[in-house]
Amino acid sequence: MQFDHPFFGYLALTLEPVEKPDMDPPTMATDGIHLYYHPDFVKNTPLSELTGVIAHEIGHIILKHIFREQGREHQRWNIACDYAVNYLILKEFKLPRGCLQDPAFFDKEAEWIYSHLDLSEDENQVTLDSHSEWSNSKSKDGKNDTEKDGDADNSLISTDLEQEWQNRVAVAASQARIKGNLPAHLESVIDNLLQPKLDWKTLLRDRITSCAKNDFVLNPCNKKHLYRGFYLPGIAGEEINIAVGVDTSGSISDEDIRMFLSEIKGICDSYDEYTIHLFFADADIQARYELRPFDPLPKIIAGRGGTDFRPVMEEVSKLDITALVYFTDMYGSFPDKEPNYNVIWVSTTEGYEAPWGAMVEYPTDERKRRRRRR
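Above: the chain sequence. Below: its structure as tokens.
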């Protein structure tokens, strides 16, 4: 899974395998901390299907099924969750024969499926795995949720675990993008999962890291999993070669520009090796620089005219870069065609969607007053 399905492979390695001979059905299960398995099932299931079932368990966690039951009828919720997760997993993996599938439920969330299920038509619908462990998550002190006093404590444990998985998914997505192996159908799932929760700087770094040059080597190996006896590839080094555009038009305040420069400094500090082609522009390019390690950031900023993104993008198209990061309020003229390199918009305007490229909203106190009409 690490090599062929790195997103799921990374997440699988965060679960602790636990043999459980008394589980029902005798397949697999997870509580977000452990990967429970029935020994006979592992022994007798073809490897391709076994890999799919592991991905199925991870799918329940990343889709938050183990956190979202919220008083619904247990068995009905279990079946709805299996329909939802199987649609996602079958796009990449094989699952054992008889797993729940229905074209009417394709691309639907578990809550929608739950409200449309008619169990009277087929009383024999059963889940692929056991879901009884969903209520058995443990806190860091090793106690079960049921050992805690009161629902408030249980809620806090669930929230902590959910946030931990938010972070794991962000890292897993970044690792898969680095390897050039994050399927398109997972992109929207991950974006919907992370966008409301993760700090914007994490999102920005994830986007930039996905464009970083790197090399995977077995010597030295990834030390994180040595205690398990797993020798997995490590990253020899990361190097970014990107362009950065800074909007210096009249609608951008001095404070905005200071914050933009601070974030550019943060990008530089995050990598040992980098080349950043820095552009300051309003309706035209006012200044450009090439930054490498230990180069100081410029302090004199010119501009304050209108906004046109085309001059910077035209110059960037002549460079050998992997991405353009543009800090702006999005009030400007776009090129007619999408460029042939990645564009990451860091926007001070809330709720705006660019015609193409990845959007990262930059939090400012002024954003509520600067919403752009769609």
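Residues 6-175 form one domain.
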